[in-house]
Amino acid sequence: MDNQITTKFMILKSANEVFEAIVDPVKIGNFWFSSSSERWEQGKSVTLRYDEYEAEGVINVLEIELNKKIVFSWGEESGEETIVTITLKELDKESTLIEVNESGFHKHDPEIVNKMLGQKEGWVYMLACLKSYLEHGVSDLRASLIH
């Protein structure tokens, strides 16, 4: 069984605008987390908050390639660490293909399918919120997903 998930979207904005929306601690609050403790940079540990759920988590930024790639790990504190690789491919000055790959799910976990489906759902939702924010200025979808 392949223990990774991949989600792709096209966003009608430049790779720089997509990249900045993710790594900028203010912009990220418009579509994903409530806040980020600081700008995402290689080698940093960044605390992300979800105010609506009174939750926070830490990511470890492993690699940054300006306007092209963001790699981080998360879930370390729960013992279920995975690696997320976000790649940006600028198709032209006004469109970018964004791909999110999350790997490292424990293949012997009896709940692996449910966990992978939950993460896939989360990535689709995050990318839809990112697209809505960047293309149309919609910033109130972020915390609307109800399980």
Automatic annotation (TrEMBL):
Highest taxon in the source lineage: Bacteria
Signal peptide range: none
Domain Activator of Hsp90 ATPase homologue 1/2-like C-terminal: 14-135
InterPro entries listed in its UniProt record: ASHA1/2-like_C (IPR013538), START-like_dom_sf (IPR023393)
Pfam families in UniProt: AHSA1 (PF08327)
Family, per entry: Belongs to the AHA1 family.
Protein name, entry field: SRPBCC family protein
